[in-house]
Write a structure and sequence with these properties.
The structure is a homodimer. With about 160 residues, chain A is an alpha+beta fold. Chain A contains three helices and seven strands; from the N terminus they run E-H-E-E-H-E-E-E-E-H. In chain A, strand 2 (about 35-40) and strand 3 (about 40-45) form a beta hairpin. Chain A is globular and about 50 Å long. The interface of A and B includes residues 52, 63, 69 and 91 of A.
Amino acid sequence: MSDDGMGETRREPPPGFHDVDWTRGFGRQVGPLFRRDEGGRRVMGLFVDAHHTNGLMNAHGGLLMTLADMAWDNVVSMERSMFWVTVRLTCDFLDGAKTGEWVEAGGELISNADNLFVVQGLVWAGERKLVSGTGVFKGIRPREPRPGEKAFLEQMSA
Amino acid sequence: MSDDGMGETRREPPPGFHDVDWTRGFGRQVGPLFRRDEGGRRVMGLFVDAHHTNGLMNAHGGLLMTLADMAWDNVVSMERSMFWVTVRLTCDFLDGAKTGEWVEAGGELISNADNLFVVQGLVWAGERKLVSGTGVFKGIRPREPRPGEKAFLEQMSA
């Protein structure tokens, strides 16, 4: 019981953004998603589509939180190349996004004591901040660095 | 770019739950969703499907937060029949849910000073608590009571 975004108009994301290759699960369901990797940092983005909206045809709060979750927890992957679980997510809703708008999300690692990672994050549309919040993630164990991650970039330059 | 849940096996929710008639937007995208109304209180539920999962085939954090958002903000509708916006949502992740599991969500209105509504909520699967959290919502203006809401039930019995 869901829209199939394949039928919607294909729009080009801003320069530097590439498709996220999530072909299954909730990542696919809330897509199409894009990412831009630069120097071990990642920004995720999407166009607000009809299948993302609430009753006012704005981006649904659940969609913005899902994008925040994906982008903010990615900080742990990019910085530490670890498996992790989400412990807590706090989202303050500041402004809305309309259908068709391009929305981005990213965060900063501000603490990592005892493998408890705290990320301050934002979701924004152009100059407008939509969501401000904090994610707390628990590192489970290290894994092989993946393309774009800081440890991967260090391996490449070693 | 999304799964079409229509192709999946139709499962019957627990007694008392009925389809949520959201035929568009993010509510449809994350469905099929169900609700059980009783005495002006509502519990929402869904079966975790393939299109709800993370890389571990568990319910994605974004899906659980979306269900929390929908169920906890519904408390404002049920108790006060108002239009509202979400101000803040805090989610503590306690446990996961696997594909096929039936998951429910609901909350309690604990404060309503100055039309700032605070809801303590849970998401659970049987005896297991999955998400515990708080939603803060700002009431915008009253609207006509809808079926299931306390004000609607009072009109009916008047």
